[in-house]
Amino acid sequence: MIKKYIKKPVQIEAIQLKEDNIIEVIEFLSVSRYYCPWAEDKERSIKRVLEDGCVFFETYDKYGEATEEVYFGKYVVKDEYSEYRVFDEDEFKELYEEVR
């Protein structure tokens, strides 16, 4: 007999990039994953992200290495496999609900 199933909810971590949390986003992505070699210098990092309008970071998966970016207002999600994904606000709110 064929039955229907619902995927169990999975808890993830996420953060939305804003002008006042740039360092927190960089730390969430881990400095080693941050694309810029000067990430250790917080003042320069903030200035560069404000100029670029986004945070660049590297991802690694079964397809290899890629560079991604998180623009202001977008969410970066660390999923259950510790992989990072970027979502716009509407898509994020459609897929995820805050745990209280």
Q: Any overview of this molecule?
A:
The chain is α+β, with helices and mostly antiparallel strands. Helices cover 26% and strands 28% of the residues. The protein contains three helices and five strands; from the N terminus they run βααββββα. Strands 1-4-5 form a three-stranded antiparallel beta sheet. The protein has a two-stranded antiparallel ribbon with strand order 2-3. Strand 4 (75-78) and strand 5 (84-87) form a beta hairpin. The mean pLDDT is 83.
Keywords:
elongated, three-stranded antiparallel sheet, 100 residues, two-stranded antiparallel sheet, 28% strand, alpha+beta
Strand order of the largest sheet: 1-4-5
The overall average pLDDT, rounded, is 83
Strand content: 25-35%
How would you spell out the order of helices and strands?
EHHEEEEH
N-end to C-end Cα span: 38 Å
> How many H/I helical runs?
3
Helix content: 25-40%
Can you tell me the residue ranges where pLDDT is under 50 for at least 5 consecutive residues?
Answer: none
* Strands, total number: 5
Question: Any chance you could write out the topology, listing elements then pairs?
Answer:
Elements: E1 13-16, H1 22-29, H2 42-52, E2 54-61, E3 64-71, E4 75-78, E5 84-87, H3 89-95
Antiparallel strand pairs: 1-4, 2-3, 4-5
Q: TL;DR of this structure?
A:
By secondary structure, the protein is of the alpha+beta class. The protein is built from three helices and five strands.
